[in-house]
Automatic annotation (TrEMBL):
This is Cysteine dioxygenase. There is a cross-link at residues 90-150 (3'-(S-cysteinyl)-tyrosine (Cys-Tyr)). It comes from Saccharopolyspora hirsuta. It holds the Pfam family CDO_I. Fe cation binds at residues 84, 86, 134. Keywords: Dioxygenase, Iron, Metal-binding, Oxidoreductase, Thioether bond. PANTHER family: CYSTEINE DIOXYGENASE, CYSTEINE DIOXYGENASE TYPE 1. InterPro entries: CDO_1, RmlC-like_jellyroll, RmlC_Cupin_sf. Belongs to the cysteine dioxygenase family. The keyword DNA repair does not apply.
């Protein structure tokens, strides 16, 4: 880990150990992540590599007790997630490029589009289940990199995704 990532993990650890409800923890982690997003030496060159077939996940840190994980997602132009929700609270911040997020609400077993956000370097968003259904995509013509913090052990789970949803007409 870079020295910036070590410091970031320590800052997040302080907030997570407060033991607050998930939504409050996500808000605190948003504030903890924000100052690190513009650090040019946050990631190593290997942690900035994408994959032409799909967005790529680099696990940067998993807290030994499994209480949180820090992940870099590298998105090439046009790459996107499926519509999904999460197993835990989640905070994401853009390190490089532009990401677009479309949130949804579930009404009568149907997904209804809710707010849309376009995030640029240094911008963060966070949420906690329920209310965390969304799709994220690279909204630009260049590579995008975002830093995600999940309140779960991603090394064990492999992903923070709880469920994927199908969009219906």
């Amino acid at each position: 880990m870079t020295s910036q990532l070590v410091e970031l993990a320590g800052t997040i650890r302080e907030q997570v150990r407060r033991g607050l409800p998930a939504a409050q923890t996500a808000e605190l982690v948003e504030d903890a992540l924000r100052p690190f997003l513009t650090a040019p030496d946050l990631l190593s060159p290997e942690q900035r590599v994408g994959d032409p077939d799909s967005y790529r996940q680099h696990v940067l840190h998993v807290e030994p007790d499994g209480s949180f994980s820090i992940v870099a997602l590298v998105w090439l132009p046009g790459q996107r997630t499926p519509v999904h929700d999460h197993v835990s609270w989640c905070v994401a911040g853009v390190h490089e490029g532009v990401e677009h997020e479309q949130r949804y609400v579930l009404r009568d077993d149907r997904l209804v589009p809710a707010e849309q956000t376009t995030n640029h370097p240094g911008e963060v968003c966070g949420f906690a289940p329920p209310g965390d259904i969304h799709l994220v995509r690279n909204a630009g013509s260049a590579k995008a990199i975002s830093i995600h913090v999940y309140g779960a052990d991603i090394a064990v789970l492999g992903s923070s995704v709880r469920r994927c949803y199908e969009l219906t007409a």
